[in-house]
Design goal:
This protein is an all-alpha fold and 234 residues long. The chain has a single domain, classed as MetI-like (MetI-like fold, Orthogonal Bundle), CATH 1.10.3720.10. Helix 1 crosses helix 10, helix 2 packs parallel to helix 5 and helix 5 runs antiparallel to helix 7.
Length: 234
């Protein structure tokens, strides 16, 4: 018990003194996760909306497949990205393996299906509610997409926050493609795993506290967004 108490005290000291190593790891974690979220949003929001509004052969199968991708095992994603970016892989010439860019790619693959699938469901519900009115105004599926995305913006912010939380909590894929290199590709989750195995509980606890605080902030933001939307709709 004394060991845990000492480690916790040291972790608080690292946090309050803004320890350089800890801040560097937190900064890289946010950089990678926010970068992945941005790319996933650019891809997932319009794709999910289009899948909700356009009728075409195989649409149902794509929807089922997209929903299945929401549960992609991170280590499998990491393995495929590793194979694609390795020297023997098709994109080995880019030399991206064991870089933050490779970690962004892995996280993007993991959270894009989540954002796209949730967006599809949201836009489909909105189209069911407002579709007849939009069609009467001469708005087809293509023109309706921006309108429906804007109308559902509060719910979509919650979707994006869910994607961000998923990205920040990821460890398997980023460890495989990033290599957990100190000062270069070491993020919070991989650092916690490494420092715990080394017995450096103070740094692991410090990073764990930061990660929990960030998760709390993300969830609080999602709650506030839902409350704001409910008040405006009410």
């Amino acid at each position: 018990m004394a060991v845990v108490a000492n480690a916790f005290g040291e972790a608080l000291r690292l946090l309050t003194s803004f320890d350089a190593e800890l801040m560097s790891i937190v900064g890289l974690s946010l950089q990678v996760s926010l970068g992945a979220l941005f790319i996933a949003a650019v891809i997932g929001l319009p794709f999910g909306a289009a899948l909700a509004l356009y009728e075409f052969p195989g649409r149902r199968s794509i929807t089922v497949f997209l929903n299945a991708l929401m549960g992609l095992p991170p280590v499998v994603v990491g393995l495929f990205v590793y194979l694609a970016l390795s020297r023997a892989g098709p994109f080995g010439f880019l030399e991206l393996l064991f870089t933050p860019t490779a970690m962004v790619i892995a996280q993007t693959i993991l959270i894009t299906p989540i954002i796209a699938a949730l967006t599809r469901q949201l836009v489909e519900d909105l189209w069911r509610e407002y579709g007849e009115q939009l069609r009467s105004l001469g708005s087809g599926a293509g023109r309706a997409i921006p309108t429906l995305l804007w109308d559902g913006r509060y719910a979509l912010i919650t979707v994006l926050l869910a994607g961000l939380g998923r990205a920040m909590a990821e460890v398997g894929a980023v460890m495989i493609v990033g290599g957990n290199i100190a000062g270069f590709t070491r993020v919070m989750t991989t650092s916690i795993a490494l420092e715990t195995s080394k017995g450096n509980l103070s740094l692991a606890l410090g990073l764990g506290i930061v990660l929990m605080l960030l998760a709390l902030i993300v969830n609080a933001a999602a709650y506030l967004v839902r409350e704001t939307a409910a008040r405006q709709l009410g």
